[in-house]
């Protein structure tokens, strides 16, 4: 027995301390400094790994960045923020005493303007939502409350199985939470669409439209995405959105500062042009300025372009990559010389035929003539984002990905429609109030952030098994290659990108 134990100790010592490098002897390269890339860099640096981040742009944060146009500041990408505890978790993991992240919960989830003129402000919190939907839309309070409770339970059931761990490593996936997750998944909407579930649950189509809208949070259609995606309403309506002090850019600023404290090395304006490999093992990356070696490479760029541009001689996993892409967006950034009391931080102007809009986005790939309009105004809570008596409007519509549409013509057409609609609803000539304007659209999303065809979240979740078709967080063929960000498992949105980093860290710990 003693001899056997000694042998085991010898084997372990020999295997782990002699043959394999320790974490402190390892180096990792992260391609891209989106929130998924920054979170991965923090996690690996904290383990003692030497981390270098290569970023094609001049700034960190990827789509979570901010720009000043004249006297107006805009967050250029995300505006809805849930699960702020994931940022707190990274600060506490890093052990930083200096870096702080402050945010507040918004009381209002969103203000809705329906096509027939009805207006509705939804205050976050289960009881308040039920009260509002009952008073304004005639819903049974108990039905709304039960629905929201169910979404909380569904969220808690699927989180440890489908979000927090890799779906592609049996030992992650197979945990004690599986039976409950599978049970709830099959019972509450794997096979029926979000819209079917919502229209069956609620009596008023307007209530259903509000819940359906949440499918767009990961670039999908409520008419195709599985009902289980209603778990988003737990985050948006039960818990409610948060707002970081200083705007959304505070998220990437915080993560960047943590990276610097942990000694992560950044190389901005340096695009990676290929991933180097020998004998099915990554050995580093190539850029225009040289080649850099590392045992680990983590790609935070769109997984489609990782294969197309950086691994062009390597067989790409076509099943993962050929799935339908998520939607893209057209965004107008308007500096508006007036304040509107009718508007809040998040506002939605619905159209009459929601279904046709999604058909246009995903099937005919057209910019719908009467799209749902989202207006985000951060200056409602961050007054310095706009001059006195003015507001910074981030006006966004969901759009198809870029398949060669005549974007210049389409954007002008839809701009005119949006201005007419907002002017009519708000009773003001909006165009006359715009003093500065910038535009973002699918071609720019592709060129600035390298999102394939301008898709925001990689694959859409427009099928029951979309979660299983997302690319894993590691390569099954190239040792040392990992993936973080919204285009891989577990999917779209800042919280999921932060989760992908957690999964990458676990996979690397297991592999090295
Ligand atoms: C208009 C818009 C609105 C959105 N709204 C929301 C929202 O409200 N809430 C939400 O949670 N999410 C929203 N999103 C999605 C959001 O952007 C993501 O959730 C998240 O920011 C994506 O993070 P990521 O880690 O995947 O990386 P990304 O932000 O995509 O960053 C990838 C980085 O990789 C870099 N890169 C690419 N190729 C290379 C290369 N070859 N070499 C070096 N660097 C490279 C890019 O420059 C980029 O910085 C929105 C996106 C857009 C565009």
Q: Which percent bin holds the helix content?
A: 25-40%
Helix-and-strand structural type: alpha/beta
Bound small-molecule species: flavin-adenine dinucleotide
Described by the principal axes of the CA atoms, the overall outline is: globular
- Between the first and last Cα atoms, what is the distance in angstroms? 29 Å
The biggest sheet amounts to:
7 strands, mixed
Estimated radius of gyration: 23 Å
| Number of discrete domains | 3
Tell me what the CATH architecture of the largest domain is. Answer: Alpha-Beta Complex
Strand content: 15-25%
> How are strands sequenced across the largest beta sheet?
7-6-15-16-17-14-18
User: So what's the CATH class of the largest domain?
Assistant: Alpha Beta
Determine the number of helices (DSSP H or I, runs of at least 4 residues).
19
By DSSP, the count of extended strands is 19
- Report the average pLDDT across residues: 94
Low-confidence residue ranges: 1-18
CATH topology value of the largest domain: Polyamine Oxidase, Chain A, domain 2
Descriptive notes:
With 512 residues, the protein is an alpha/beta fold. The protein folds into three domains: 153 residues, 3-Layer(bba) Sandwich (FAD/NAD(P)-binding domain); 169 residues, Polyamine Oxidase, Chain A, domain 2 (Alpha-Beta Complex); 115 residues, no CATH class. Helices cover 40% and strands 19% of the residues. The strands form five sheets. It has a seven-stranded mixed beta sheet with strand order 7-6-15-16-17-14-18. Strands 9-2-1-13-19 form a five-stranded parallel beta sheet, with helices on one face. Strands 10-11-12 form a three-stranded antiparallel beta sheet, with no helix packed on it. Helix 3 packs parallel to helix 11 and helix 5 packs across helix 7. The longest helix is centred in the N-terminal third of the chain and has 23 residues. The chain is globular. The relative contact order is 0.17. The N terminus is likely disordered. Bound molecules: flavin-adenine dinucleotide. The site of flavin-adenine dinucleotide has 34 residues, from helix 2, strand 14, helix 17 and helix 19. Flavin-adenine dinucleotide binds next to helix 2, strand 14, helix 17 and helix 19.
């Amino acid at each position: 027995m003693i001899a056997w134990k000694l042998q085991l100790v010898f084997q372990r010592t020999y295997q782990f301390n002699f043959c394999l490098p320790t974490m402190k002897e390892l180096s990792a390269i992260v391609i891209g400094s989106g929130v998924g890339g920054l979170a991965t860099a923090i996690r690996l640096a904290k383990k003692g790994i030497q981390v270098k981040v290569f970023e094609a742009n001049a700034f960190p944060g990827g789509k979570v960045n901010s720009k000043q146009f004249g006297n107006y500041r805009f967050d250029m990408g995300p505006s809805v923020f849930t699960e702020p505890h994931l940022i707190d978790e990274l600060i506490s993991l890093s052990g930083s005493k200096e870096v702080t992240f402050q945010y507040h919960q918004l009381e209002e989830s969103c203000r809705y303007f329906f096509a027939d003129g009805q207006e509705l402000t939804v205050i976050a919190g289960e009881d308040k939502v039920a009260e509002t939907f009952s008073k304004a839309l005639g819903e049974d309070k108990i039905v709304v409350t039960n629905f929201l409770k169910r979404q909380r339970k569904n969220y808690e059931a699927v989180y440890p199985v489908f979000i927090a761990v890799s779906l592609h490593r049996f030992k992650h996936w197979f945990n004690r939470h599986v039976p409950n997750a599978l049970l709830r998944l099959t019972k509450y909407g794997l096979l029926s669409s979000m819209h079917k579930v919502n229209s069956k649950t609620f009596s008023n189509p307007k209530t259903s439209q509000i819940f359906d809208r949440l499918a767009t949070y990961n670039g999908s259609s409520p008419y195709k995405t599985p009902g289980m995606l209603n778990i988003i309403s737990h985050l948006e309506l039960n818990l409610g959105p948060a707002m970081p002090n200083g705007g959304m850019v505070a998220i990437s600023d915080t993560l960047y500062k943590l990276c610097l404290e942990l000694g992560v090395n950044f190389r901005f304006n340096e695009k990676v042009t290929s991933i180097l490999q020998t004998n099915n093992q990554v050995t580093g990356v190539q850029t225009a300025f040289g080649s850099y070696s590392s045992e680990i490479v983590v790609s935070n760029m769109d997984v489609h372009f990782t294969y197309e541009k950086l691994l062009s001689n390597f067989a790409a996993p076509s099943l993962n990559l050929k799935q339908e892409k998520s939607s893209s967006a057209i965004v107008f950034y308007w500096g508006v010389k007036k304040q509107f009391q009718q508007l809040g931080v998040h506002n939605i102007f619905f159209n009459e035929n929601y279904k046709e809009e999604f058909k246009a986005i995903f099937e005919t790939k057209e910019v719908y003539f009467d799209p749902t309009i989202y207006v985000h105004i951060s200056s409602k809570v961050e007054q310095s984002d706009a001059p006195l008596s003015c507001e910074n409007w981030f006006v966004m519509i969901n759009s198809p990905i870029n398949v060669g549409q005549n974007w210049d013509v389409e954007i002008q057409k839809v701009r005119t429609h949006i201005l007419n609609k907002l002017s009519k609803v708000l009773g003001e000539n909006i165009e006359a109030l715009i003093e500065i304007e910038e535009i973002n659209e699918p071609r720019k999303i592709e060129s600035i952030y390298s999102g394939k065809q301008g898709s925001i979240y990689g694959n859409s979740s427009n099928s029951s098994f979309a979660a299983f078709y997302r690319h894993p967080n590691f390569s099954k063929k190239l040792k040392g290659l990992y993936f973080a960000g919204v285009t891989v498992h577990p999917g779209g949105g800042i919280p999921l990108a932060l989760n992908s980093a957690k999964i990458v860290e676990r996979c690397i710990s297991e592999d090295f």
